[in-house]
Amino acid sequence: xxxxxxxxxKERDSALLVAVAAGDRRALEELYLGYHRRLARFxxxxxxxxxxxxxxxxxxxxxxxxxxxxxxxxxQVSTWIIGIAYRTALKSFRRQKNHNGERSLEDYPVPTVxxxxxxxxxxxxxxxxxxxxxxQRLTLELxxxxxxxxxxxxxxxxxxxxxxxxxxxxxxxxxxxYLPALSGASPDLPxxxx
Length: 194
Prior knowledge:
The chain is mainly α. About 70% of the residues lie in helices and about 0% in strands.
């Protein structure tokens, strides 16, 4: 499929999705290539296993292929595709959790011994995020790492904006509790900032 050179990314995605709906495999390949890195980066925050990331991305684009005709342009194509990836990831994580049972100590990152503050904070934050329920963790990732608005997250997760706000609130409250406990500090003591 050949698209005009001066076309916005939103228009390009929309045209490609229309072509996918018409059965154009080349258009599906272009969408896949255009979103693969973005989705892989998003999913890698939740699973370090390359095979899982690839499986979720492939399953996502199978849904895109099968349901392109159902896209009603109520949102951006990117929001629709990320929403599919989100739901596919949730199903995958739940399925893995049911099969794997409890997590072992090897599943948790080892705190860094690097003396740099930023690296240590990043490790603690990652560990804290891993303690959150999947829906809350994914909501924070969509907001803070991918830059989606509350309304876009509501479309992606197929829930009301109020639910998105509640997930973000509860996730931040849990992180406030987890992070001091992870560092060995008492969560009851106020943090000192000087």
